[in-house]
Design goal:
Elements lengths: L1 E4 L5 H6 L3 E4 H7 L3 H10 L8 H13 L3 E7 L5 H10 L3 E6 L6 H14 L4 H10 L1 H17 L4 H9 L8 H17 L9 E6 L8 H7 L2 E6 H7 L7 H7 L6 H14 L4 E7 L8 H7 L4 E6 L7 H16 L2
Parallel strand pairs: 1-2, 1-3, 3-4, 5-6, 5-7, 7-8
Bound molecules: iron/sulfur cluster (SF4).
């Protein structure tokens, strides 16, 4: 059975239970009818002042006939509970999952066990799946390294590979073959001299605007860090599932994310950060903490609906890159 997931969850449990995880964010944003999904949500009564991702997920679940959804009610999005309720009203079966506040290991373990029980599998079986995915996570780590060390992957290619790790395209074997092809293709590429180009990081939720990477690159900067997508991919070895999902920074407090971002600013020699925020998202409040905490210039860009960057955002990105170039 296809099981929709509203964000990254212990996907190992879903595979262990023999189901196919579908990251609803990826389903929505890559679908040719993505604008229709949002319209459907608004027609059904979702307010205009609700985040486009939430409305897109709602529309995608109903339009694509997804019958069961793991809804992350804590640690991801303040709107998920209401999203889950509207889906339940429409007949979708909801499986709740919560990342505990404060990264409490015993509460996290209880959540993973509850998910195992609900999907009729066990922690032991999920651990076996976890071990079987090591090779995939290693290949994702290699893609990330080849992005920031050698420039063999663009920021957008890095984003697409890492963001797909949340559901592994529903099929780990297929996903691994896809990564093998990407790595083989990158090995054959001629390495372009990137001397003098700016090095930027993207932090925050993945952008809803399709052309943002290409636009940044066209203006003389390379995106060599995708913060949240890299977190989705869980590139560091961990001792067990609880350890793996408690090291994951995104669903917990912003300070863990900031430590991670600071480390990567140094490791990747970043000149600046673009903080992508989504219109009507509670995470926008964290922008002020990020700005105060990071040592490099930060540009905050807000998106709303899928599609190209607005003229205003284009101008702001151009000005930011010019400013960084001048102050280098
Ligand atoms: S962008 Fe913010 S409001 Fe929208 S789904 Fe993500 S966390 Fe929720």
């Amino acid at each position: 059975m296809k099981i929709g997931i509203t964000t990254t969850i212990p996907v190992e449990v879903v595979f262990a239970a023999g189901h196919i995880p579908v990251d609803l964010n990826n389903l929505f944003i890559t679908h040719s009818a993505r604008s229709e999904f949002i319209r459907r949500a608004e027609q059904d009564g979702y307010p205009v002042t609700v985040c486009g991702w939430v409305k897109g997920i709602y529309g995608a679940v109903l339009s694509e006939g997804i019958q069961s959804v793991v809804a992350v009610t804590q640690g991801d999005c303040s709107n998920t509970q209401a999203l889950a309720e509207t889906l339940e009203l429409a007949g979708v079966s909801i499986i709740p999952f919560a990342f505990p506040f404060g990264r409490d290991r015993s509460l996290l373990e209880e959540q993973i066990l509850a998910l195992c029980r609900r999907l009729d599998t066990s922690m032991e079986q999920a651990e076996q799946v976890r071990a079987s995915l090591f090779g995939i996570r290693e290949k994702l780590r290699l893609i990330d390294e080849l992005t920031y060390k050698e420039g063999r992957f663009s920021g957008e290619e890095n984003h697409l590979a890492l963001v797909s790790s949340s559901d592994m395209l529903g099929d780990p074997d297929l996903f691994e073959r896809h990564l093998d092809e990407l790595i083989a293709g990158a090995a054959e590429r001629e390495v372009v001299n990137r001397e003098g180009r700016l090095r930027l990081g993207f932090v925050g939720v993945p952008p809803i605007n399709s052309d943002i990477y290409e636009f940044v690159e066209r203006n003389g900067a390379d995106v060599v860090f995708n913060e949240v997508q890299r977190q989705f991919a869980m590139l560091n070895r961990s001792s067990d599932l609880v350890d793996q999902y408690s090291r994951y920074t995104y669903p917990y407090d912003v300070f863990g994310r900031i430590e991670d971002i600071k480390r990567e600013i140094e490791a990747r020699r970043l000149d600046g950060i673009i903080h992508y925020v989504q219109a009507f998202c509670f995470r926008q409040i964290e922008d002020l903490i990020l700005r105060k905490s990071l040592s490099v210039p930060v540009l905050t860009i807000e998106g709303n609906y899928p599609g190209p960057l607005s003229a205003q955002n284009r101008l702001r990105i151009e000005a930011f890159i010019d400013q960084l170039r001048l102050s280098r």
